[in-house]
Design a protein that fits this description.
By secondary structure, the protein is mainly α. Helix 3 links the parallel strand 2 and strand 3. Helix 1 packs antiparallel against helix 10, helix 3 packs parallel to helix 4 and helix 6 crosses helix 10. The longest helix has 32 residues. It starts with a helix and ends with a helix.
Length: 280
């Protein structure tokens, strides 16, 4: 028993120290070198449209979601075919791919879109989601919440959104989101459970997929995709992690750090579950 606990603490300590050192070096570089409000040159990721771009790519060809989805489905964690599920669909590539893959997995799907009413054109985004749901053979439900812009907007919008969704709703979080979550939790002082990120399973069936794959799937299926300009707002920590910190970490490490962080999340999750078992 002592050996097991010692092994866990040693692994956890090395993991936390390694990530902390990386973030410390990168954070200093970002503060001094990268423009903090994005107006000039910045690192761009392949899913990042021009600032303020609210274009919606309209579908032109209808077709089955099953054939292009086959390889991706093998890496997803959807429940058994025939299960009735709800999918949170904002209209972005990740949640739209979630909708297509859930249908392809043989589930009975309802797409739920929550309009926060924070920007002009948000009502049209709900219609884009409705159109995709109809094309794919899924049901659709629209909800609306009232959020006022101001401090802590990201957290308030998330809480309001989830208050309108069923507790077992499926989300389109990918491995990229997992890596961002690990870093955000670390920067906020998260312990082992925070470094474990999101738990894989039915609620997060796309955690083994990459964001570039969801974008490619939507393009292949010619599904409409909404580009939310708030994903570029530097007021939100996650956006800065996505557009500044992660690209810089890739450059420093000369490798894909999303894959590294997603793997570390799995190791931290195993350690966290072991601790829970030992404490029971």
């Amino acid at each position: 028993m002592f050996a097991v606990i010692f092994h866990w603490w040693l692994g956890a300590l090395l993991t936390i120290v390694g990530i902390a050192l990386t973030v410390g070096v990168v954070g200093g570089y970002v503060k001094k070198v990268v423009a903090p409000q994005y107006p000039g040159k910045r690192h761009k990721r392949d899913d990042c449209p021009a600032h303020g771009d609210q274009r919606v790519t309209e579908p032109t060809v209808a077709g089955s979601a099953r054939s292009p989805c086959t390889d991706l489905l093998a890496r997803c964690t959807f429940p058994a075919p025939g299960t009735t599920v709800s999918c949170a669909v904002s209209g972005g590539a990740d949640s739209t791919a979630l909708l297509a893959l859930a249908v392809a997995a043989g589930l009975t799907v309802t797409a739920i879109h929550v309009d926060h009413g924070l920007r002009t054109g948000s009502t049209a985004e709900a219609q884009v989601v409705r159109g995709n749901a109809e094309r794919l053979g899924a049901a659709f439900r629209a909800e609306r919440v009232h959020i006022v812009d101001g401090p802590n907007l990201e957290a308030r919008a998330r809480d309001a959104r989830y208050s309108m969704l069923p507790p077992d709703v499926l989300t389109g979080h990918t491995a990229d989101d997992q890596a961002e979550t690990v870093l955000v939790n670390l920067l906020r002082g998260g312990a082992t459970s925070g470094l474990a990120g999101m738990r894989p399973g039915h609620r997060h069936p796309l955690l083994s997929l990459r964001r570039r794959e969801t974008i490619a799937l939507c393009a292949t299926l010619q599904l409409a995709v909404v580009h939310d300009p708030s994903n570029l707002d530097p007021r939100h920590l996650r956006n800065r992690v996505r557009h500044e910190l992660l690209p810089l970490m890739d450059d420093l490490a000369q490798r894909d750090t999303v894959a590294v962080l997603a793997r570390q999340a799995g190791l931290a999750r195993d350690d966290d579950e072991l601790l829970d078992t030992l404490a029971a």
